[in-house]
Amino acid sequence: MIKRLTIFGVGLIGGSLAMALRAAGTCHEVVGCSRSEEHLRQALERGVIDRYTLDPAEAVQGADMVVLAVPLGAMRAVCAAIRGHLAPEAALTDVGSAKGSVVEAVREGFGEMPLNFVPGHPIAGTEKSGVSAAFPGLFHGRRVILTPLETSDLGALARVRTMWEETGAVVETLSVAHHDEVLAATSHLPHLLAFGLVDSLARMGERDEIFRYAAGGFRDFTRIASSDPVMWRDICLANREAILQVMAGYQQDLGLITRAIEAQDGDALLEIFQRAKAARDEFCQ
Ligand SMILES: NC(=O)C1=CN([C@@H]2O[C@H](COP(=O)(O)OP(=O)(O)OC[C@H]3O[C@@H](n4cnc5c(N)ncnc54)[C@H](O)[C@@H]3O)[C@@H](O)[C@H]2O)C=CC1
Ligand SMILES: O=C(O)C(=O)Cc1ccc(O)cc1
């Protein structure tokens, strides 16, 4: 049971977490804190939080669980603002899409690594943002990756794990570096491809015509290009090295397809497409 949960950034992810824990009946009180009073008022009106404050130091007072659910670029400033105010027994975690940069931001914001910090990342979300898009079932049956540090307190790790399990999520642990490599490939690269494809087509000229004749495949492939541009700028800058590496590999593989088409090499194309279909059919049943 969490007595007082403080959430920084009550948007899609922070809001959905609060709703899920309330629905599970495992959280006594939820306090929201953000830069935007408008967002907090909306969260209060929707019954997502019990109260809010714009003062980070006040927000963490008496909290036994603190979740950083702000954009990656805001993590450091929030930590600096709560430095010296967090109770030593409070567990601290985050939901950021890249982990190396958050670990750095937390260390810099606090001036040292807090022992009760356990980085986390729910692999669940949508292309929508804000508390109006939040819903309690977002994490149900989805994976949450925790990337505990050598310094992470085991009690804090257990409490963060339990919190996510109470939302219906399946919790796994990875190292920070491994998380960032895997997510660069499975989440960051697909988002960049979707943004890139839509932008490229939108600038092709007869834009209305291009989109008018787009079929379901285009819609499926590009839903995530409606995601928050600021969030994805932050992710690209935060996970630069790993993203550049998977993009280079992908560009090479795309080159194989280009050359097979140029050479009218149907066998090579079939081999690639059959391999891809078998892999996807196996993983997405
Ligand atoms: N959108 C998604 O599908 C997923 C997002 N994430 C991560 O979750 C975090 C939040 O993303 P969303 O919930 O989608 O964003 P959101 O835009 O829905 O919510 C972010 C909230 O943070 C607040 N905020 C912004 N700057 C702030 C600051 N400087 N100080 C305090 N509060 C501030 C905003 O007022 C807003 O309420 C990001 O770090 C993102 O990488 C993780 C998994 C999925
Ligand atoms: O909308 C989708 O399908 C997503 O993939 C959402 C998402 C965005 C960022 C994350 O770090 C995790 C999940």
Automatic annotation (TrEMBL):
MF GO annotations: NAD+ binding; prephenate dehydrogenase (NAD+) activity; prephenate dehydrogenase (NADP+) activity
Protein name: prephenate dehydrogenase
The organism's taxonomic lineage, starting at the top: Bacteria, Pseudomonadati, Pseudomonadota, Gammaproteobacteria, Chromatiales
Keywords: Amino-acid biosynthesis, Aromatic amino acid biosynthesis, NAD, Oxidoreductase, Tyrosine biosynthesis
Similarity remark: Belongs to the prephenate/arogenate dehydrogenase family.
Membrane-spanning parts: none
Organism: Ectothiorhodospira mobilis
Enzyme class per UniProt: oxidoreductase
Pathway: Amino-acid biosynthesis; L-tyrosine biosynthesis; (4-hydroxyphenyl)pyruvate from prephenate (NAD(+) route): step 1/1
Pfam short name (any one): PDH_C
Catalyses which reaction(s): prephenate + NAD(+) = 3-(4-hydroxyphenyl)pyruvate + CO2 + NADH
Keyword Lipid metabolism: no
Any GO BP: tyrosine biosynthetic process
Prephenate/arogenate dehydrogenase domain span: 3-285
Coiled-coil annotated spans: none
EC number in record: 1.3.1.12
